[in-house]
Design goal:
By secondary structure, the chain is an alpha+beta fold. It contains 5 helices and 16 strands. The chain has 2 domains: 8-105, Jelly Rolls; 130-247, Roll (Nuclear Transport Factor 2, Chain: A).
Amino acid sequence: MKVTPGVKRTPLLLGASDGALRMDRFYYPPGGHTHWHIHTGEQVLYGESGRGWVRFEGQERVAIEPGGVVHVPVGLRHWHGARPDTALVHVAVTAGGDTEWLGEVTAEEYAGEPGPEAGSPAGTRPSTGPDEVVRAFVAAIERQDLEAALALVTDDVVYDNVPIGAVTGPDGIRNALSRLLGAVDGIEWVTRHQVAVGDVVMNERLDRFQLGDRWVEVPVAGLFVLRDGRIALWRDYFDLATYRRQTGSTSGP
C-alpha cells in the first residue's frame, strides 16, 4: 500500500483467500491520501466519518462524507483521501482482484489541478478555489512537507511575517520555515474561521508549536492573495510579545 504518512488500514475480514471479497477500514489524517492506483476488482467506498475526496483521472473530485457511497470502476486510475482541514474514515469493499500502485499525487493534483496525465493543456492552473488552495497550503506546513506547500506559491511570492519582516520567493519561504520547523518538535495550525472573496483569502488561526512536552500558542490573522491559482502574497499578523512571553526568546516564530 502506497500512502502518505499517517494513513492506516485495518482489515475487517480476516483470513480471506485470494480473490475473495475484502473489507477494510481506512483512516486518513487531515491532508492524508493514497497514491494513484487502479483496481482489477470492483470497489465501493463508504464514508464513515470526516470528509474527503475520491479523484478519478480526467474528472473532478467526488466528495466522500459520512453515509456517502462512491463506486470505483475496474481499471480506472484514481486516488482518495482526506480534505486538508479534517480527517477521514471510510470503509472499502473490494470484490476480488488486486491493486496496482502508481505514482504519487502531486501537490497540484491534490489541490485540484487536472494535471497533464488527464489530458489537460500545458500551463493550466488548479480548478479549485482559493479557499481550498490555502487550506492545502496550511495542511502541507502542518505535515512539515515544505515542497508540497511551495508547489502552491508563485515564483515571486512575498511572505510577510509581520512584525518580523518579509521574504521573497519560494526559497525565502523555505529558509524561513526550515528555521521554524527545525526549532520545534511539532506544529498545529488550527483554522478557526476562513473567508474567501475572489482571489483574496483571510483566516483566523491558532498556531501551535510544540517545544518538548509543552505547546506554545499564538493567535494569528492571515491574509493570502492568489494569482492564477497560486499564492502570490502571504501575510501573517500576530503579537510577537505573546510568543516571546511563552518561550523566553528574543526572536519570533
